[in-house]
Amino acid sequence: MQRAEQHPIQRMPTVFGPTPGPRQMPDGTLRGPDPEAQRATAWATCPVDRSALTRVLPAQFTPRGAPSLTIQFHSLRNLAWLAGRGYNIVEVSVPVTYLGLPGPQDGAFVLVLWENLTDPIISGREELGMSKVFAEISDVRTPDPCGDQDLAAHWGGFEFLHMTVRDLRAGPATPTAALPRFHHKYVPRTGAWGQADADYIVVSPANPVNTRLVATATGTASVSLTRATFDQLPTLLHTVNGLADLKLGPATAAGVTASVGAGTLVDQYAV
Fold this sequence. Notes:
This protein is mainly beta. Helices cover 10% and strands 44% of the residues.
């Protein structure tokens, strides 16, 4: 196995050496795929207003097809890099075409990722360039054709997102096509406010080869986003209200999936 010292991954505090995490073992080796990782996902897709969506996308992107937004609740469990622990995610993405070099490319732009554990938030922001922030997030159950999924995201006791997936029945259901996911990495330069240490697009390649789908169900969904005041969400109101401004319509597709195995996203790259 390749030694991580050849390409060390460092995060603050750097004085103690390379940091253990999703891509680097405590003994200094690069971490490989995790065949025992478990993921349960509940998702719903809603139409949104095209002009409102265009205003929030970076300049290199344009909405692809009928403008829509997909919300995915994920529960990750039995993760080797967390010594068997797990955490929950809310991922919000929209279908786009990337117009930068080397040429047009279809994919999904991830507007925001909420997670309920500090460790993946820090590593995902600093190493991968993903727009990760904190929230309290409901658990997703393994697909059950007879059981509804009732899910919510909170911060400081304020529920800003609620999603119910119901009428589940066994059948093929996928939240997004097998396409890359795009993110905007931005890190401000300390003391030079308004300037960036990092400001570029990063890509999560499609089709993680180490993931195997084991169950799927399709159904219907309802999604509600609650606008917030400063007192309710002092650090997240711009994000939540920005999503609400996209004018979500009734969900047009929904489902639940379960999979095993996970990669490390060490193949994440900047464009």
